[in-house]
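User: I'm putting together notes for a lab meeting next week and I want to include a structural view of one of the chains we've been expressing. I don't have a solved structure, so I'd like a prediction I can at least talk through. The sequence is below, exactly as it appears in our construct file.
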Amino acid sequence: MSDFATRLIAWQQEDGRHGLPWQVADGYRVWLSEVMLQQTQVTTVLDYYPRFLAQFPTIFDLAAAPLDDVLALWSGLGYYTRARNLHKCAQAVVTQYGGEFPRDPALVAELPGIGRSTAAAITAFSYGTRAAILDGNVKRVLTRWAGIDGYPGVKAVENKLWGLAHALLPAEQIEAYTQGLMDLGATVCTPKKPTCLTCPMNADCQARLSNRQGELPTPKPKKTVPEKSTVMLIIRNDAGQILLEKRPPTGIWGGLWSLPEVESTLIASELAAQQLGLKIELEPALPDFVHVFTHYKLTITPQPAYAIAVSALHESNAQWFNIDAALAAGIPTPIRKILSKTPK
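Assistant: Thanks for the context. Below is the predicted structure for the 344-residue chain, given as structure tokens.
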């Protein structure tokens, strides 16, 4: 066993995180947590995870559930492609593997929404499979410890990190080692102000020895963030219901319920008549707000409107909801923000 692994395992057993609800040898629970923890803080997942398990206690329950139910429970976690792939993956594991994740990480990596690192984590924690992980936290730990320059998203740098991750793997205690890597990156070797004095690797960490903790990992080259804008129509009928549209299954907010959108308030009435079969009367617009996606910023203008003439809705994917039902449905975070401030 490498000295790196020995120190890391000892540190994890003494100072690492213990008692997290997904720290069990159960493939379904480990996989669910790994997907939720992608791009999401542990504190947030600790709120969603038990509610998800309460509704879908087994992978068979999740596979059999309607996608709408999955999206509704996922609402607020963001990155909704994860939820759609979660549903597809559950169905694949049930149909292809009888509800049990394979022990081979290469087979797990072929399942929907699972990459190489996530597959390794699932099999390591569930079966003790000797497989290397390389998520964002681990990349930061290894680049600093080994003093590796270059943005980790560049293929050559990533390949170098994978090679190092494999070379450092211990022959045993893979669960503690894998958890230790995650814990070290999350609690000690943090992006800003790492607590190097408490790190088990501080004696030979190349970044610390050269005072380059703030430089490594090499940041991603900055690009100008595109900006877009949209007008979201808050259309109410005589019963006080709100009109929502189900978005296409792919793309931003795929499969979620959302407010109808137009490019400008100037054409809102015309498009409502043409596309929805509604004659609407616009009310004063609400203040704009900005929602930030990974690749662009979206300025949203919430535009209240009243349906003064309602015929059969032209759009088969449009439906009237009362406010409580809308908030309970699978809706994106900006829509939830708008509707939570809309009078019932």
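A couple of points you could mention at the meeting. The mean pLDDT is 95. Residues 3-132+168-187 form a domain with the Endonuclease III; domain 1 fold (CATH 1.10.340.30).

User: Perfect, that's what I needed.
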